[in-house]
Amino acid sequence: TISLLIAGSAGAKVRSATRLVAEAAIRSGLWARQRGDYPVTVKTGHSVNHLVISPTEQPALPVTTPDVLVLLSTDGLRKVESNLERLTPSSTVFTVPEFADIDTRARVVIIDPNATGERIPKTNHALVVLAAAATSLGIPIDALYAAAAGPFEEENLKAIDAGLAADSR
């Protein structure tokens, strides 16, 4: 069982990116449970999602210390800062260059959504970083691609490809 805490800004498609990774996990034969926390204001403040991926169904217990923290924005950092202190050396933080020198005992992986040369809108940066995190956790690339299908398929696929390219650097 792997628990992820994804922390970004409202309006930055954090929930959508988390849902896509959850769907990819399900397509891979795993169980996934997602819970979101965001203010009622539109496109202001934080957007934090908990995602638990497991080979078996798990009870809906609160996650106190995630295995993986995906940090995407200052709004997200403000909301999950206390989690950084609880992370262990076996935890991993996937984040953008803005937070490269974040203070934590966890391993830090920097994913730069702009490093691929492909223009990725800021609203897709959550999916770029989450795609890199998901594949490093063993979610098959084909499952991510399949989960990306739908009305925003083209931009989702570009974001996934950018995450895979950024993670291979």
Task: List descriptors.
169 residues; 6-stranded mixed β-sheet; 5 helices; Pyruvate-ferredoxin Oxidoreductase, domain 3; single chain; alpha/beta
- What shape does the CA trace take? globular
The CATH top-level class label? Alpha Beta
What is the count of β-strands? 6
- CATH architecture level-2 label: 3-Layer(aba) Sandwich
What is the first-to-last residue Cα distance? Answer: 27 Å
Helix content percent band: 25-40%
Low-confidence stretches: none
What is the fold named in CATH at topology level?
Pyruvate-ferredoxin Oxidoreductase, domain 3
Structural class: alpha/beta
* SSE succession: EHEEEHEEHHH
Largest sheet: 6 strands, mixed
CATH superfamily: Pyruvate-ferredoxin oxidoreductase, PFOR, domain III
Q: Rg, please?
A: 15 Å
Helical stretch count?
5
Mean pLDDT: 90
How much β-strand is present in the residues? 15-25%
Oligomer: single chain
